[in-house]
Design goal:
The chain is mainly alpha-helical. Among the domains are: 139 residues, no CATH class; 81 residues, no CATH class. It contains 13 helices and five strands. Strand 1 and strand 2 form a beta hairpin.
Length: 316
């Protein structure tokens, strides 16, 4: 099975998890009862009225401890997830799991099939060649996606605040409360606007989770990265397949720490397709393993190379 197939499986699986978490009471906040529900249990501070009535030092200390353990510490753990992911895996989550990233990739693909470029606004140098076959089919898929996906997203995400059973009951009766109506419409509009107009710019400049992974991954000496083997740079055919495959507009052959790289592995797949299975120049590796001496040797050899196919300099 190809790397792309594995990535699509993880993206679909994570989307299903996002949709099912409120339905299965894995995680949601019920605004009607004002209760946080985690794995079917109500998450509370573990305090009753007797503790609040006890104004002694011991009683006050117990309240403070419970508040720290049940309210502050869990949020610290949650907020630490993405910096830790950045330290060890870079932006791997963005490329393999992020629901918004999956939606933006779908929008890129449909736009490419319909108008011959990924962006609505301008054609970029790394846009891949697009086939004009079955254009009517892609028009229908695009229209269906614009109607169905934002609506499903609105229903699913509103379920984190309103019981999913209540939402579907209101949908079936077509009698909505203001909160349910506002949640579905608001999320649907957000998904529609970002998938059409914003896309990966949101990943680069706005998404807090992405920015934390980006900064910690860039600074970490051990984070996962996709790198080109500098000792085999002369085997590059200059097909630019790795650049065309990258929807984040990264230049993979530059071999530098690019904060926009989401470790999706599209360049790995493209290079294997060009040079043959198992012969690609790109691979996943933890941290910086390529020595400066090796890179300098490749650069000096490339400078005197008389091959008609130019080789891009490799940087570390």
């Amino acid at each position: 099975m190809s790397l792309t197939a594995y990535r699509r499986m993880t993206q679909v699986a994570f989307l299903l998890l996002i949709f099912l978490m409120p339905v299965l009471n894995i995680f949601r906040y019920d605004t009607a009862t004002r209760e946080l529900i985690i794995f079917g249990q109500v998450w509370s501070l573990g305090l009753n009225n007797a503790f609040y009535a006890d104004h002694s030092l011991r009683g006050t200390g117990h309240v403070v401890l419970q508040f720290f353990l049940k309210a502050i510490l869990p949020w610290i753990v949650v907020l630490a997830i993405f910096p830790l992911l950045g330290v060890f895996t870079g932006r791997f989550f963005c490329g393999w799991f992020c629901p918004e990233g999956t939606l933006f990739e779908l929008a890129d693909h449909l736009t490419l099939k319909l108008i011959g470029r990924r962006s609505l606004f301008a054609k970029r140098p790394n846009d891949p060649d697009a086939s004009h076959k079955r254009k009517l089919l892609y028009v229908l898929v695009a229209l269906l996606s614009l109607l169905v996906l934002p609506l499903l997203g609105g229903i699913a995400l509103t379920g984190y605040l309103v019981a999913p059973r209540t939402i579907w009951s209101q949908i079936m009766s077509w009698n909505f409360t203001f909160g349910v109506k506002a949640g579905i419409i608001g999320v649907s509009l957000y998904m529609l606007i970002t998938s059409i107009l914003v896309r990966h710019s949101l990943c680069k400049y706005i998404c807090a989770a992405g920015l934390m992974q980006m900064l910690f991954g860039w600074a970490s000496p051990i984070s996962l990265r996709v790198r080109m083997d500098p000792s085999r740079a002369e085997e590059c055919t200059n097909c630019r397949g790795c650049e065309k495959a990258c929807f984040m507009n990264v230049l993979p052959r530059m071999n530098k720490r690019d904060i926009s790289c989401v470790n999706c592995g599209a360049c790995v797949v493209a290079c294997h397709r060009e040079l043959g299975k198992g012969r690609g120049l790109f691979r996943y590796q933890a941290g910086e393993k390529a020595s400066l001496a090796a890179s300098e040797r490749v650069n000096s050899e490339s400078a005197g190379h008389s091959c008609s196919k130019p080789v891009r300099p490799v940087r570390t």
